[in-house]
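Q: Got a minute? One more chain.
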Amino acid sequence: MTVFLVMTVVLFGGAAAIMGQALARNWRPAWQIVLYAVLLAGADRFLLYALFGAELLSPSGYAAAFVILLAAAGASYHLTQAARMTAQYPWLYERAGLFGWRERRPMLELPEATAE
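A: Always. Here it is, folded:
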């Protein structure tokens, strides 16, 4: 169990977080997170099999690794994307929570002075 936690959560979870940041920084679509999480989960299962004698074709182990890596990559992707949107377009967007942004509210217009 500790081998799974160290390899999957710490090592591959960190790689998934970096992968999510890279996808968001390059304006890639969010569906690519799923594709890369599948590949990372496969690499995780292979290293657990090769280094520690875990079962290679374990559906439950693969599913658990995939869900953990998908969550790490998705959270990192949305955090980075929200930060980029608000930093790159500060006149249009402001942060709305940890993972989102919203359009800025228009500033109040000053009443026009009447010339008499």
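A: Residues 24 and 77 are 5 Å apart (CA to CA).
Q: Perfect, thanks.
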